[in-house]
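#struct-pred
JK: can someone run the complex with guanosine-5'-triphosphate? inputs below
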Amino acid sequence: MKALILVGGYGSRLLPLTYSIPKPLVDFANKPILQHQVLLNLSSIPSLFYFHRLDIKDCFHNLSRLRHVGVTEIVLAINYRPEAMYNFLKDSEDNLGVRITCSQETEPLGTAGPLALARDKLVDGSGEPFFVLNCDIISEYHFAELIRFHKSHVGEATIMVTKVDEPSKYGVVIMEEGTGRVERFVEKPKTFVGDKINAGIYLLDPSVLDRVQLKPTSVEKENSPDRLAAAGEHVVGNVLVHETASIGDGCLIGPDVVVGPGCVVEDGVRLSRCTLLRGARVKKHACVSSGGTRASASGRASRNVTVLGEGVHVCDEVYSNGGLVEPRREIRSNIPNPKVVK
Ligand code: GTP
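RT: done, structure tokens with the ligand placed:
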């Protein structure tokens, strides 16, 4: 099994310390943060437990850390001050008994982009899930339990959450009660929506890597079952957005909207009670309600159900009320009443 540790953050909350030292290498209790993490997560050296003032139960947890659940290779996702990180590696790899490799970014790729960059290092054909860890967390959680849980559900990703007193400072994870299925992420909520936050520990199936794009993006965005819900106030009721769809700024979406793979919804669009099938594009400030389309629309589709066939183009300022439009037509004038357009 493999693990990727995200060590590329600028650590702005630790400034000015992080002007000269990358956050993972800042000393915490006389050792770099990363060293605590790698050692505590991989090693069974009992003396380290004292540092955490762990009781017997916690020791049992630590003994069952990553190494013991089969992690043999760590990929460090590096963005910032790589030379300092390489020196750390040189000193540490032999002692740790795991293979450590680096994946070097040329621009900050966030928390998900590094997965795309390290794809070849993470996929080994075994189909086994891999861990992703933030570099600045030291967890006492039983990783074997995490693997068991991951294998017990049908999802491709498991995220560890932790309860906090002040959720308004963090990205809150909203889950279905009973199953724990993630419904959405709400970044720094202004009103109370839950108190479980992303703990920065994930277990992901390799299939996730097929979708993560090589661009600056976050794990939450790339794995959200309903990406738009994170936008909160711009989503109303049931809305399902495919992870490869893109949604512009200032859109109001819902209720009862499905946005399919590869769809592009430009800025300021209003969508309600409609389905955008694979590849549809809705242009700036268009309004679609009661319809389904694989078309590019810049006017309005409304009231009676409009169905636009593949490759149909609706021109600016034009509306369709109940038009059933055959593929590859251009709609230049309004369709005021239901009719078939051949
Ligand atoms: P702050 O700036 O103080 O928020 O700290 P940070 O830069 O570490 O950001 P944050 O705590 O949100 O990062 C979460 C994890 O992702 C940490 O382990 C970071 O090192 C890591 N990380 C953040 N941005 C990047 C990036 O662009 N590339 C890589 N490889 N890791 C990143």
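RT: quick notes.
The chain has a mean pLDDT of 77.
The pocket of guanosine-5'-triphosphate is lined by residues 6-14, 23, 77, 79, 105, 108-111, 114, 134-136 (CB under 6 Å).
JK: thanks, will look after standup
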